[in-house]
């Protein structure tokens, strides 16, 4: 549910704490958004299940069993962290601010939310001093995404960094910078817990 830059930010913080300096870790961190078909539902790429209570969550256990039982490849670790981070984001931000709003208020809130993503890019890049790595896409064995879409996601991420200053003077509409930082930092902490 977070933006590309938010996921890249989380991967950057994790790479420092875990001493993983592999571009495949960063690539895995954005890969779940290369869902099939392009722009389609994220059910498969995010391993989503709907519980009896109607709450949708990633099946982290299924992902671990399928891709992390024998090997800890950086790409899969990054992918796993994306799924965890989305869970944290949904709990911290999406559910409290948007999920339960009535229409058309919900639609307006979602529009503000996505505009805030763009405004936050430059703020987060500067706040964390993010440096964009060269992310070369090499094939990885994974069924749930269309790997051919990854170069487009990487190009979009590069564009986010190139345009980071364009919206820096615009006020956030729905989100606050502080709550975003708290959620990103909590994502890092929860990812670290899952990897122990």
Termini distance?
A: 24 Å
Name the overall outline. Answer: globular
The count of helical stretches stands at: 7
Strand and helix order: HHEEHHHHH
| Sheet having the most strands | 2 strands, antiparallel
Total E-strand runs: 2
Uncertain residue ranges: none
The number of domains: 1
Percent helix range: 55-70%
Mean pLDDT: 93
Oligomer: single chain
Proportion of residues in β-strands: under 5%
Which structural class do the helices and strands define?
Answer: mainly alpha
Reading side by side through the largest sheet, how are the strands ordered? 1-2
Q: What's the Cα radius of gyration?
A: 16 Å
Features:
196 residues; two-stranded antiparallel ribbon; 3% strand; globular; mainly alpha
Describe the 3D structure.
The protein is globular, with a radius of gyration of 16 Å. It is built from 7 helices and 2 strands. The model has no long low-confidence stretch (mean pLDDT 93). It is mainly alpha-helical and 196 residues long. The chain has one domain. The chain has helices at residues 4-18, 23-30, 60-67, 74-99, 105-128, 150-162, 177-195; strands at 48-50, 56-58. It has a two-stranded antiparallel sheet with strand order 1-2. Helix 1 (4-18) crosses helix 7, helix 2 (23-30) runs parallel beside helix 4 and helix 4 packs across helix 7. The two termini are 24 Å apart.
Task: Quickly describe the structure.
With 196 residues, the chain is mainly alpha-helical. 58% of the residues lie in helices and 3% in strands.
Write the layout of secondary structure elements.
Blueprint: H1 4-18, H2 23-30, E1 48-50, E2 56-58, H3 60-67, H4 74-99, H5 105-128, H6 150-162, H7 177-195
Antiparallel strand pairs: 1-2
Helix pairs in contact: 1-2, 1-7, 2-4, 3-4, 4-7
């Amino acid at each position: 549910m977070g933006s590309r830059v938010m996921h890249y930010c989380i991967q950057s913080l994790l790479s420092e704490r875990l001493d993983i300096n592999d571009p495949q870790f960063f690539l895995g961190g954005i890969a779940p958004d290369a869902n099939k078909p392009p722009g389609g539902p994220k059910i498969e790429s995010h391993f989503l299940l709907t519980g009896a209570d109607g709450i949708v969550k990633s099946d982290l256990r299924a992902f671990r069993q399928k891709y992390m039982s024998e090997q800890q490849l950086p790409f899969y670790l990054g992918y796993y962290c994306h799924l965890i981070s989305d869970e944290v984001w949904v709990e911290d931000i999406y559910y409290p601010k948007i999920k339960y709003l009535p229409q058309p208020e919900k639609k307006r809130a979602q529009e503000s939310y996505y505009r805030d993503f763009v405004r936050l890019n430059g703020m987060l890049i500067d706040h964390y001093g993010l440096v964009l790595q060269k992310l070369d896409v090499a094939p990885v064995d994974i069924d749930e995404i269309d790997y051919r879409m990854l170069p487009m996601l990487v190009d979009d991420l590069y564009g986010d960094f190139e345009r980071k200053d364009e919206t820096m003077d615009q006020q956030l509409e729905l989100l606050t910078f502080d709550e975003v930082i708290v959620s990103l930092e909590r994502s890092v902490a929860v990812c670290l817990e899952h990897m122990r």
